[in-house]
Amino acid sequence: MEFVKMQATGNDYVYAEESETEGRDLPELAREISDRRTGVGGDGLIVLSRAGEGEREYDLSMRVFNADGSEGEICGNGVRCAAKLAYERLGVRVNPMRVRTKAGVRAVRMIESEGKVFCAEAEMGRPRPLPLGAERERRLQEVGLSVDFFRIFPVDAGNPHLVVFDEEDRSLLMLGRLCESSGAFPDGVNVEQVRRIPGGFSVRVLERGSGETFSCGSGAVAVAFAALRSGRVGEEEGRRGICVGMRGGRLQVRFEGETAFLRGKIEEVFTGRYEI
Hints:
Layout: E1 2-8, E2 11-17, H1 26-34, E3 44-50, E4 60-66, E5 71-72, H2 76-89, E6 97-101, E7 104-113, E8 116-123, E9 128-129, H3 134-142, E10 152-156, E11 160-165, H4 172-182, E12 190-197, E13 200-207, E14 211-213, H5 217-229, H6 235-240, E15 242-246, E16 249-256, E17 259-265, E18 267-273
Parallel strand pairs: 2-3, 4-6, 11-12, 13-15
Antiparallel strand pairs: 1-2, 1-18, 3-4, 4-5, 6-7, 7-8, 8-17, 9-10, 10-11, 12-13, 13-14, 15-16, 16-17
């Protein structure tokens, strides 16, 4: 199987065309290839397919499989890297590029320098507060996570997030275990631990299916949305761009009306062939 390893602020995935993975159990392949000791190593596997002839809705389709084999709805860093790969290697020479994900079609605008795409901005849809219902909120409250849509803010950013503005210096792993033990998220949830810093926010993220990662694009969107809705930043800053710093680097999220846009650097790491 021919593959390309790519990363965006440390969020790294293995990318392959659908034709290269034909006949394989994709969740099993994702678990195998993501292993950092016995496989290629990464936060998961992203499978790409070019749009068929006459297709007008999108230019590229992608499926995201986490390191544990579970399938995600969208990956903000992944969709930006996918567009670069398709533009430079698969002959999909359109910019902006429309990429179909399980969360819907997302437009990605690429920025080039000396003939290479080094940065991209993806339209990430309209994040919204994630309604949990009384029973799920009660379960979280029992483990000490009282949802108030200020300090603890559930967000739907194409996939579910629990944004925690945490001044108690709790460990990220502990927050993840509390969410898991509560039973409030049977399908898992991404957890963002957020602190205000000069010029933006510092974030650590626990991604469902992959554990702690160096970056999460949809997580950055969730944090920016929660910061805006909770009054931590104003609408003008939201229009200009909110800086979200993660372990792997900085991302910027801006809003046009209710629609979020995610911007940051993207990079091809290496290519290779994996025996399957």
